[in-house]
Amino acid sequence: MSGILEPAEAQTPHQQHDGKARTRPPEAPAGRDGTVRHALLNAALEVFIERGYTEAGLNEIATRSRIPLGSLFQHYGGKRGLYLALWEEFREEQERRTAATLAAERDRGVDDPIALFVAGARAYLEGAWDNRRLAVLLVEDDGPAGIDALRRQWDRAWVRRNARLLEVDEKRRVGRVRVRVLTTVIGGAARELGDCEDEREAREIVDEVCGILTHLSAPPDARPATSP
């Protein structure tokens, strides 16, 4: 899980476990169908957190959601579909949050790449804290087949978006490495936030990380000289 600081390109395909692209599923409809999906995802999140993905049982998820097992299969196809739906929900919410923050900053006249990058990082980290139960689940090693490949795919996409936001020349290896390091810092901080139980501590972490990102985001020749 890394920092998503620019919205994804329109109509980006999803990936199945076999690596083939598929089109984005439609938004969950309002009414009864949307209520069923919401109940199933909430129950799946609870069971995944308590049991782990591997040990989670579909019967328990259906029982907690009070939705028939057949409806679970109809909507999500099984346990893997539930996990991927949760992952997608978190990813898209983080994208919406950071995109809205960047738009608001630009509307205020902010055009400095580093200031925009740090503002987006703060929004992402605050989202990781607000949705920490889901965030913690999604960085665990226990997940469905193919999830690691999906994570790597999106990590690469996030690094590219961050590079554009920071106006870094991706053709230069040093620029790519700098952006990858920054993105990794955000992802690591998001994991730490998942272990926080106190909002004050979480805010301290977010402030500290944003200060680090401000320093590291500047090109080497623009940083103040350090004392020997």
Low-pLDDT stretches: 2-30
Helical proportion? 55-70%
- General shape: elongated
| Proper CATH architecture | Orthogonal Bundle
CATH superfamily: Tetracycline Repressor, domain 2
User: In CATH's first tier, which class applies?
Assistant: Mainly Alpha
Q: How many helices in DSSP terms? A: 9
Biggest sheet strand order reads: 1-2
What's the number of structural domains?
1
Number of strand segments: 2
Mean pLDDT: 83
- Round the Cα radius of gyration to an integer and report it: 19 Å
User: How many strands, what sense, and barrel or not for the largest sheet?
Assistant: 2 strands, antiparallel
Please name the CATH topology: Tetracycline Repressor, domain 2
- The rounded distance between the terminal residues' Cα atoms is 36 Å
Estimated share of beta-strand residues? under 5%
- Alpha-beta content class: mainly alpha
- Helices and strands, in order, run as EEHHHHHHHHH
Biased composition (Basic and acidic residues): 15-25
Domain HTH tetR-type: 34-94
Protein name: HTH tetR-type domain-containing protein
Organism: Streptomyces shaanxiensis
Give a summary of the structure in a few sentences:
By secondary structure, the protein is mainly alpha-helical.
Q: Which features characterize this protein?
A:
228 residues, mainly alpha, Tetracycline Repressor, domain 2, two-stranded antiparallel sheet, 66% helix
